């Protein structure tokens, strides 16, 4: 490896580790070839033990030991979003932010991680692999579970007992902006009210003559 190649490899490694989401490089059987420092927080073994393990086994998926053959062989695995996303990526497609609930075993307890899965095909030194990105959305899911919302005006109460519009709440907590439109039912209702208003004005003009 030349000095330039070493430098490029170091830069790639630095960028790889700078990504806050869990990132894995996997083969078609979801065997791990590489992962970033964020993903390392999910793994409980040394790197030399992790590499070439299937993802479910390395992460201690709740279903990785359902059958003796291991990760990817149990009936549950047929609907695994991660495994199916990797499969699609190997078919030349890109899966972008598909939602998935991961159930991992930690110290005998089940840890649920809600995530968005992105899988992109890559070619490295003639070998087909997939870049697998797992975005943790537990905070968003938890907010969905506990947000108090008024049944009448739909305002949301924050943790300081202030009531605010839904848009303001999400903007302040998650920096999420909303676009606005009308659903079909509300559109019909608004058009009906507008038509009634026009008829009422026309009727007033008729009476005033």
Describe the fold and architecture.
The chain has 209 residues and is an alpha+beta fold. The protein has two domains: 3-142, PAS domain (Beta-Lactamase, 2-Layer Sandwich), CATH 3.30.450.20; 147-174, no CATH class. The chain is built from eight helices and seven strands. Strand 6 and strand 7 (163-164) form a beta hairpin. The relative contact order is 0.09. The mean pLDDT is 84.
Tell me briefly what this model is:
This protein is an alpha+beta fold and 209 residues long.
Mean pLDDT: 84
Order of helices and strands: HEEHHHHEEEHEEHH
What's the gyration radius in Å?
Answer: 26 Å
Just name the CATH architecture of the largest domain.
Answer: 2-Layer Sandwich
Widest sheet: strand order? 2-1-5-4-3
In one word, what is the shape? elongated
Number of helices, counting only DSSP H or I runs of 4 residues or more: 8
Could you list some keywords that capture this structure?
single chain; 209 residues; alpha+beta; Beta-Lactamase; 2 domains; 5-stranded antiparallel beta sheet; two-stranded antiparallel ribbon; 8 helices; 7 strands; 39% helix
